[in-house]
Amino acid sequence: MGTTPSDSKRVEIFDTTLRDGEQSPGISLNTQEKVEIAHQLARLGVDVIEAGFPITSPGDFEAVQAIAREVQGPVICGLARTHKADIDAAWNSIKDSDRPRIHTFISTSDIHIEHQLQTTHSDVKGQAKAAVALSKSLCEDVEFSPMDATRADVEFTAEVCAIAVAEGATVINIPDTVGYTTPEEYTAYLHRLYELVPGLDGVTVSVHCHDDLGLAVANSYAGVLAGARQVECAVNGIGERAGNCSLEEIVMLLRTRTDEHGLDTGLDATELARTSRMVSRLTGYPVQPNKAIVGRNAFAHESGIHQDGVLKERTTYEIMDPTEVGLESNSIVLGKHSGRHALRDALEQLGFQVEGGALNQAFKRFKEIADKKKQVTALDLEAIVSDEIRERADSYGLGWFEVSAGSRIEPRARVAVRMPSGEESIGESGGDGPIDAIFGAIRAAIPTECELRSFTVSAVTEGEDALGEVTVMLRAHGRLASGQGVATDILEASARAYVRALSNALDGAAVREAEGVTQDAAQLPATPGP
Ligand code: KIV
Ligand code: ZN
Predict the structure, then answer these.
(1) Cβ neighbour number for residue 148 with a 10 Å cutoff
(2) I need a labelling partner for 14 at 20 to 30 A (CA). Which of 20, 318, 375, 396 fits?
(3) Which H or E run contains 110?
């Protein structure tokens, strides 16, 4: 007998930046970076943090466990295939959280069942049943996803979901895994599931949409209008291939058009801009200038007619107030005479708890920058602290560099790199320009094969003395890795970014070698079934 969708007006936000988002090529976050992002997600007020896929590597397990132990507020969720080993790893990583959730999944589309799983429909049903039952025996809160649901037969998907509900799943998530569906089709699919799955009205229905056709937000919105009350999304829309539904877009869509549907989330939207900047910095994925909500130009008015209108009345050309999403709230200003206390207070206001050695290091960086820049703002402080979070004592680091360049001399650079052993290695090189020479010298100091894929420079704030922020993406040891660096001098920012990217690639390669996994295997581990 059919059931009806939820009439609650509260839509829960399930953030998967640290799981699906982290599966974007070139992103390699370490535990400290993931914990920092998770704290910021908690400040933002997300309902659920999908902290990782713990079976994939000891590093992933450790990060999920650290988040489960440290981050209060949101539900902390770990992903698992239907295999016993996955579920045990997920549970062991999240069990110290006050609010743990296991998220288990198996595909229901024929394409996946035939070609990837190479099994039968009846086996899929058996695996789903066993996985939800096992998860439920460990954890009260269990989410089940029929992967690739939107390309699967709806009747079969409904049978599998009904099994999951009967076994005690608390959330049923319907993924558009390959970003194939359309709003009308997704709506019809969900309505049909509500008709076919007994008890679906008693659990939370969730949507998980990918952006391959640019429809992730539109499809998620359609899903919510059809009755879903959880949206899975990622900050800045990062994720597999074209990414996931963008968190900031769906949140502001629900808020701005609440007149239309009466729905809203529980998020503190004023934290959106900061969360976006933090994720962009730590992942090395820049935000396009025209990105909705958080792009640099999202509230910029170029045409004279628009500027004239906004000056007379903001709402003539603005449907949201930039302060609603935390833009233009940059009131903290420090200078070169500001002391350690002032810095700590300012960092606390920004949500960073920095003490002891970390505060000393942040203060040293702050002084260096304040000597060169008249005013150090909240945006600068965020950039400096993120830069420090990225610096790892056990990895490669930039010691110093010298460069000579000009239109009449051949560029040359000497760079000292601090090796993980603590020793210094010096490299020298010429190049097409000063940055190319610096990169060559770093490669000479850390001899390894690598190829530069992209290099971007941006300014942290406006003005001539703005801090420069550089992002480098390179390929080394068969894997993409990114790094970022911040400094008043873009040559120094470039050197920092390059050393970090190389160090991320080399650390990742060393970890995978020690664990005996390849990058593909890390994303879809081969472990025995339940
Ligand atoms: O896209 C997808 O289907 C997923 C599942 C694991 C939910 O990420
Ligand atoms: Zn996904």
Answers:
(1) 23
(2) 318
(3) helix 110-111
Pocket of ligand 1 (CB under 6 A): 20, 105, 145, 147, 173, 175, 177, 208, 210
pLDDT value of residue 520: 35
Residue with the smallest CA separation from ligand 1 atom 1 is: 177
What are the strands, taking DSSP E only, across 110-236?
142-147, 171-176, 204-209, 230-233
CA 150, 91, 29, 423 dihedral sign is: negative
Distance CA 290, CA 294 (A): 8
Contact assessment for residue 260 and residue 364, using Cβ atoms and an 8 Å cutoff: no
Ligand nearest to the CA of 86: 1
State which ligand 1 atom lies nearest to the alpha carbon of 79: 6
Let me know if 144 is exposed, middle or buried by CB neighbors in 10 A (0-12, 13-18, 19+): buried
* Mean pLDDT, range 216-244, rounded to an integer: 97
Q: Does 7 have pLDDT greater than 80? A: no
Q: Which atom of ligand 1 is nearest to the CA of 175?
A: 3
* pLDDT value for 133: 98
User: For residue 291, how far is its CA from the centre of ligand 2 (angstroms)?
Assistant: 21
The closest of 196, 259, 195, 264 to 224, measured between CA atoms, is: 264
∠ CA 458-462-466, rounded to 5°: 65
Instruction: Indicate which residue's Cα is closest to atom 3 of ligand 1.
Output: 177
Could you tell me the distance, in angstroms and rounded to a whole number, from the CA of residue 320 to the centre of ligand 2?
A: 29
Distances (CA, A) of 28 to 37, 66, 291, 416, 437: 13, 17, 23, 24, 26
In sequence order, what are the residues at sequence separation of 6 or more whose Cβ sits closer than 8 angstroms to the Cβ of residue 374? 335, 465
Instruction: Name beta bridge partners: 452.
Output: 474
Q: Which of 101, 142, 161, 177 to mutate to test the pocket of ligand 1 (most atoms within 8 A of CB)?
A: 177
Question: How far is the centre of ligand 2, averaged over its atoms, from the C-alpha of 226 (Å)?
Answer: 20
Claim: this prediction has a pTM higher than 0.85: yes
- pLDDT, one tens digit per residue, over 328-383 is 755 678 888 888 888 888 888 887 878 888 888 889 888 988 888 878 888 888 88
Distance 439 CA to ligand 1 centre (A): 38
Give the integer Cα–Cα distance in Å for 27 and 453: 14
Distance 175 CA to ligand 1 centre (A): 6
> Which ligand is in closest contact with the Cα of 145?
1
CB 46 within 8 A of CB 73: no
pLDDT at 84 over 80: yes
Neighbours of 341 (CB within 10 A): 8
Ligand 1 center from residue 220 Cα (angstroms): 14
